[in-house]
Amino acid sequence: MLELDALTVRFGGLTAVDAVTLTAGRDEVLGLVGPNGAGKTTLFNAVSGLVRPTGGRIRFESDNLLNAPLHRRARMGIGRTFQIPQPLHELTVRENLVVAQRFGTGRVDDERIAEVLDFTGLAGRAGRNAAAELALTELKALEIAKALCTDPRLLLLDEVLAGLETSAKRRFMHMLADLHKRFSVGILIIEHDIDIISQLCDRVAALDFGKLIALGTAAEVFRDPEVVRSYTGGTA
Ligand SMILES: Nc1ncnc2c1ncn2[C@@H]1O[C@H](COP(=O)(O)OP(=O)(O)O)[C@@H](O)[C@H]1O
Ligand SMILES: [Mg+2]
């Protein structure tokens, strides 16, 4: 279980994440929504260790994460994807997974890699160059595969479905729902598509200007007046 307690991240005078208190369980898919600049990616960065919080606490499975280095968080079971897919460009798909696994778990598990390649539909592309020979959908699948092969307990997915057409989005949504069950991994997902969030997520958290403004089911959150206002710039 991930527990954020008054988590705050400031960049100079800007408060990107403002005293957010939130838990995410391994048994749930939690959606994180909010307009551009709301602080969603920064919250992920604080959890995965890429930015240092200014205040508050982060606990994972009861351990204090606040000062844990990046690789330790990965080894504790926190996996993530990035808003822009980041394959290692000189390497093949399989080599990308080997590198991700070495970083994430400290060892290479060929069986797990084979299982993940198969699950993400990349088995036939394992020997291809990751940067030059993959289509966008395959790059997205590789981002998920890289995170998954580190045996995570919690996956942070940052707009991993953005830029996909509707049918591909739906396929990925089903893949994520399967992955949640099959690998017993909790999911925290940033996504703008309300239909996808509504179908995939057990709960939804809405951020605006770094503050948690609503938390509940998708139906509750998307009809919350403050959430509606946050998306329409205060004119609704
Ligand atoms: N490294 C950084 N340095 C300074 N400002 C940043 C940095 N990262 C993000 N920000 C600012 O923090 C706010 C939240 O950004 P971000 O977390 O990327 O929002 P979201 O992912 O919700 O679109 C924005 O105003 C953004 O410009
Ligand atoms: Mg973002």
What is the structure about, briefly put?
With 236 residues, the chain is an alpha/beta fold. It contains nine helices and ten strands. Helix 3 runs parallel beside helix 5 (136-148).
Structural description of this entry:
This protein is α/β, with parallel strands linked by helices and 236 residues long. The protein has 2 domains: 160 residues, Rossmann fold (3-Layer(aba) Sandwich), CATH 3.40.50; 73 residues, no CATH class. 37% of the residues lie in helices and 25% in strands. It contains 9 helices and 10 strands. The protein has a 6-stranded mixed beta sheet, with helices on both faces. α3 packs parallel to α5. The longest helix is centred in the last third of the chain and has 17 residues.
Topology:
Elements: E1 2-11, E2 14-24, E3 29-33, H1 40-48, E4 55-60, E5 63-64, H2 70-76, E6 78-80, H3 93-105, H4 110-119, H5 136-148, E7 154-158, H6 166-182, E8 186-190, H7 194-200, E9 203-208, E10 211-216, H8 218-222, H9 225-231
Parallel strand pairs: 3-8, 3-9, 6-7, 7-8
Antiparallel strand pairs: 1-2, 1-4, 4-5, 9-10
Helix pairs in contact: 3-5
The protein binds adenosine-5'-diphosphate and magnesium ion.
The site of magnesium ion has 3 residues, from helix 1.
Largest sheet, described in full? 6 strands, mixed
Number of helix segments?
9
Oligomer: single chain
Radius of gyration: 17 Å
Overall structural domain count? 2
Question: CATH superfamily of the largest domain, please?
Answer: P-loop containing nucleotide triphosphate hydrolases
Averaged pLDDT, please? 93
Q: Identify the strand order in the major beta sheet.
A: 6-7-8-3-9-10
- Reading off the top of the CATH hierarchy, the class of the largest domain is best stated as Alpha Beta
Question: Which band does the percent of strand residues land in?
Answer: 25-35%
Order of helices and strands: EEEHEEHEHHHEHEHEEHH
End-to-end Cα distance, whole Å, is: 36 Å
| Second rung of CATH, namely the architecture of the largest domain | 3-Layer(aba) Sandwich
> How many β-strand stretches?
10
Global geometry: globular
Within the CATH hierarchy, at the fold level, what is the topology of the largest domain? Rossmann fold
Helical residues, percent: 25-40%
The bound ligands are: adenosine-5'-diphosphate, magnesium ion
Low-pLDDT stretches: none
- Class derived from helix and strand content: alpha/beta
